[in-house]
Fold these 2 entries.
Entry 1:
Amino acid sequence: MCSTPENGRPCLRCKNCKRLNHWIYPDLHLTVPTYESNQITKNILSEWRIFIEGNDYFNINSWANHLGTTSKPNITKKQCDDILQTYNLKSYEGGKKIFFIWGTELLEKEGNRLLKIIEEPTDDTYFIFIAYNKNQILPTILSRLQQIDIPPASDTEIMDYCSQRELGDSNEIKEAVNLGDGSISEVINILTSKEHLFSEYLLSGLRTAYQGNGLEMMKWVENIQKLNTGQFIQFLQYQLHFFREAIAGHNQRNYIKRLLRSEQKAANWLFNNVRFLEVFRLVEQIDHYIGSMNQNANKKILATNLILDYKKLIKRS
Ligand SMILES: [Zn+2]
C-alpha cells in the first residue's frame, strides 16, 4: 500500500504509510475481539487507536484491561457478517484491500462462514490472521492459510526491553519474566498492572498464617481484596507458578528453578515445615479459586479462604 516503497519495503513516510500506521487507511479493515455480543470492531475503533498508541507489545488481556472489562473476548457472528459485507464492497482508494484479524483463535464455528472468501479472495484482497496459539484455530481455517511462525522473545531480550523502559526494578522484572512464560506482552501486563510484587503478598500471607494472629490475617485479606479482578487472578496464577517451581525443584536435584532468592528461601522453609501432600491440596484449591474468579466470585471471601488454607497447610503439617 506504500506509494514509494524502498527495496520492496514500505517507506513509512508517505501519506499511505502514515495512515496505515494509525489504522485510519480506509482499505485496511480491522477485526479485533469484542466483549459484547452486539459490538463490532467499527464501534470501538477509536478506543483501539488510543490503546495501540505507544504500545509496542500487547495481547488480548491487555486489550481487555484497557477496556476495563472482565467479560469473555469473542469474535462474533456479527463480526463475521461485517467482514463478509465489507469484502463485497469496492476498495475506496481503488487499490488493495487488507483484512486484518487479531485473535483468530476466538473465531468459533461462525468462522466457517469466511472459508470461501479466504480460499479464493478476489484480486488485490488479502487476509492477515494473527493468533497466539495456532492449535486453537479452527482446522478448516488454518488449512487454508500460509503460516508464518514468530518465536517468542528470549528472557534476556524481554528483560532488556523492560529495563530500558523502566517498567520495574530488576527483581520485579525477573519475577514478571518468570511468570510471563516467554510472552513479552504478558510480562508487560504483569509489570504495569500491579503495585507490589506478588511474591511479597504470598510470603507475607504464609508468614501471617504461621503466626496465626487473627487480626493480622484479616489485615492481609483487606489488602489482597483491593487487587482488581485481573490482578487477583494473576496473584492466584503466581501462586501456582511458585508451588510448581518449588515442588519441581524439591524433587529433581538438577532442576533449575525459576524463583527469586527470597522465594527460594520460602520454598526451602515450606518443605522443611510442611507435608508434601498438603501442598498438592492447596494447589488444587488455588486452581479452583481461579475458576471461581473467572465467574466473578467475591474477592474478600476468596482472600479469606486463601489465608485459612495457608493456615491449614501449616497446621496439618
Ligand atoms: Zn510509504
Note: The pocket of zinc ion is lined by residues 2-4, 10-11, 13-14, 16-17 (CB under 6 Å).
Entry 2:
Amino acid sequence: MQLKDVAVLITGGGSGLGAATARAMAAKGAKVSVIDQNKDNAEKVAAEVKGVAINADVTSEEQIQAGIEKAEAAHGVARVLVNCAGIGGSMRIVSKDGSIYPLERFARIINVNLIGTFNVLRLFAGRLVPTPPDGEERGVIINTASVAAYEGQIGQIAYSASKGGVVGLTLPAARDLAQHKIRVNTIAPGLFLTPLLMGLSEEARKSLGAQVPHPARLGAADEYGALAVHIVENAMLNGETIRLDGAIRMAPR
Ligand SMILES: NC(=O)c1ccc[n+]([C@@H]2O[C@H](COP(=O)([O-])OP(=O)(O)OC[C@H]3O[C@@H](n4cnc5c(N)ncnc54)[C@H](O)[C@@H]3O)[C@@H](O)[C@H]2O)c1
C-alpha cells in the first residue's frame, strides 16, 4: 500500500519511535493523526507533520473511540495503524530489601503495552472493515514489541511479558484479519536513542551502543520509521515480527 493521501493513526506519536514514524509517513504524503496521552507532545508533533493531535490513553475504550472519530472527521477512515505507545519499568520479583513485586505494577505495564495495543488494534479494525479495500489491500497494522520479548533482562519481567504478548498476538491477528485484507506485523526494536535513553550520559550511551555487534551504536528513531514505511509498502509482509537490532542479543543484566 502506498502512503500518499492515506490516513494513518500513530499511538505514542508524541515522542521517540512514534514521532519518527509520524515524520517518515508524512514525508510520504500520509495524513497523520498523532495519538498520545502527553497532550503537549502530541500537539507539537502533529503541528510539525500538519496532522491532527489526539490526546488519549490507549487503555481507554472511550478515549480511543473518540480519538478515532476525531481523526476520521479530519482525514477519512484510517487504513494504517502504528502502535508505538508503551512504558518501561524495572524491578526484581523479590528485591534486595525483601519487598515483593507489587501486582498492580505488573498489571499496569501489561495493561498499557499489551492490552492497550489490542484495544487500539480492535477499534481501528472495527472502523476499517466496513470500508471498501484499496486494490488488493484494505489496511496495515504495525505493533511495537522489543527484543526483551525474547531476551528479557533481570528486572524486566513485566515489560518482557507484555512484549512477548505483542509478539504472540501478531500471527493470530494477521490470520484473523486476512479475510478483511488487513495485514498485521510487529517490529521488535533493540536499543534506540529516544527520550528514554537520552537522559543517560554520553559515556553510558556509548557503552550501551558498544554492545550492538554491528553497527555498534544505538539505533536512530528514523531507522524504525523507515521500516514502518517499508512494511506498509510491501504487501507480502504479513504475520511477522521483525527484529530491528543490529544483531544484539541481550545478556541477563
Ligand atoms: N527506545 C528503545 O530502545 C525501545 C526498544 C524496544 C522497544 N521500544 C518500544 O517502542 C515503543 C516506543 O518507545 P520510545 O522509545 O519511542 O518511548 P517514548 O517514551 O519516547 O515514547 C512513548 C510514547 O508513548 C506515550 N504513551 C505511554 N503510555 C501511553 C498511554 N497509556 N496512552 C497513550 N500514549 C502513551 C508516551 O506519552 C510517549 O509519548 C514503546 O512501546 C517501547 O516499549 C523502545
Note: The mean pLDDT is 97.
